[in-house]
Predict the 3D structure of the following.
Amino acid sequence: MHLHLLKAVSIFLLILLFLSSICTMRDSYAQPTSFVPSVNDNNLEVKPVITGLDGPTSISFLGSNDMLMLEKATGIVHRIINGQLIAEPLLRLNVLKFEESGMVGVETVKNDNGRVYVYLYYTAAQGGDENLTQKKNIGNRLYRYELIDNKLVNPKLLLSLPKGSGFHNGGAIKLGPDGNLYIPVGDLSPGVGKSPNGTLAQNNQTGSRPNLSGGILRMTQDGRPVGGIIGNSFPESLYFAYGIRNSFGIDFDPITGNMWDTENGPTFGDEINLVRPGFNSGWNQVQGIWEPDFGKGWIRGPQFNNSKELVDFNGTGKYSSPEFTWQDTVGPTAITFLTTPKLGTQYENDIFVGDIKYGRIYHFELNKNRTALQLNGSLSDRVANSSMELTPVIFGQGFNGISDLEVGPDGFLYVVAYSYVCSPAVGHVKPQGAIYKITPKTDLSKISNDVSILVGTDYKSKIIGNIASNAPLKDLSVATKGENGRTLLMENETRWSAPLQLNATYIEGSFRMTPDKNEKGKDYHAGLVWQEGNNKTYYAFVRPGEIVLSDSTGQISCAILVGANEESWNKITVLNSGENIHVYYNDTLRMTVPREFNGTDISLVGIRSNNTKAEFDPIKVGQFPQNLSRYLLPEVALTVNENSSISIKTRQGS
Ligand SMILES: [Ca+2]
Ligand SMILES: [Ca+2]
Ligand SMILES: [Ca+2]
Ligand SMILES: [Ca+2]
């Protein structure tokens, strides 16, 4: 009971740490970071597929631009086609909403006979769970459904797990190259077995028989055992691997067929493992490369060096230490092999891993025979002992909690960001999950003041002009009261461009904010303002750490910018797509808000700088410092010609 309590406390502390990391990013892995999704490769960019989702945990592709998506707490299976939810959810189930529970895993299998099977793994709640309590928890279930006419029908129960604690459910189902299903299941701790001792599958020599927890299970597509590895009778017959504390991801090497997984440690020792048949990951005798010190509260004990303590199921189970260990936890979730060269041949068939805590994507090369990761320098010991050591393997960041990664049928990498929290201190808490895709960058056309390009069939290839080289690079003083020294500095890449749509105009400005000498620490902001033909005025403000979108009556949306500071270069972009307003920050989508459609061109763009608090009094056109708006965005004329080309003229250039 004592240990049970310690476990509960440590979980609570972990949750606190996770929540606080959302807001402050202060801990042992803290690095300059933000919730602006980005990748560390100048040839690639991150594009939103869909935003505003309610806790997306998992996706599975049905086809090109066509995927299923699970929402953790609503119990809903959505279908997303071309970046839009179809109107009717495919299914809604009674799920336990508590902590890690809910809709957690989905896999889609297209059968030879044309059937589409959808496998769902979730924590069931008897009669629904409105109060986020444990009482309704009846355990995890794996069902196979059939997809017919946008409905999930003919449910067939394949797995029924004992009731757990609401944590460590697993569920990241994957279809293996052998046509069988593989399902990681955590130890369900501390609700099952004599915590922390657990069953034989938790490496407790005196424990009870396994109960489907703490392993990676293997079954045929209709739920039958494939052939026992650690035992031939149920439930041992389903175990492909065991000794697993908590896993949110598995995938298969497209070249060798080997399985790899990610595992979460308690307060230390997150792992990436090569998972061979009968693999024993060692929990709860070892996590990472260390013994847990249960007496002191699940903290890191001495280095593990006695595999005799482990359960080996008569020699059929084999322990191996992780191929990679994070000493301090990041909460690794999805793992995927990038099976295509679409992001560049250097990434083809490499491993990508997401994490929930920092929203990072890690990239790992494999060694020549693909049995280990290719790690150099301070990582050659296969352990990230500090945040600095992680730098070479960080591929992307700013995704605000990654719950899933998938390679789409188009060969690009899709990233599911679980949630989004904006300025909780001032009450703008907005859970907002999103799906992004990582693609090669859109080609910029040649730099010119007059650009004319044919309209392609894909009107979303939107960059058609760039006046970077001709825009004067100048520091502009902003008229403010007194000797305050505030300046707005133009970035030499300031440019404007337009998507190939008549009614959409894309504006982009860059500036750097420097604080008032006299008013340091006071709230101030600078941003873009634009007005449309119906005199509706919108404002996008960047303040230190935050971007805010408002119309003339009030705030519409906000986004936090962790890591942004007064001295940093800030750039905001506004895309008026006709139906939505998208606000970008450093080239990346931050917000989408609905708007009433009004297909007129931009009539004014300018910079506004003000030291008012968070209030957005409308400004009239004439109140803008004319020199600023002229420099930032010269007057633009867009003309769609009869031959489907678009001509762009700027006053500056003509
Ligand atoms: Ca998935
Ligand atoms: Ca392990
Ligand atoms: Ca590579
Ligand atoms: Ca190291």
User: Anything to note?
Assistant: The pocket of calcium ion (ligand 4) is lined by residues 378-379, 381, 383, 385, 389 (CB under 6 Å).
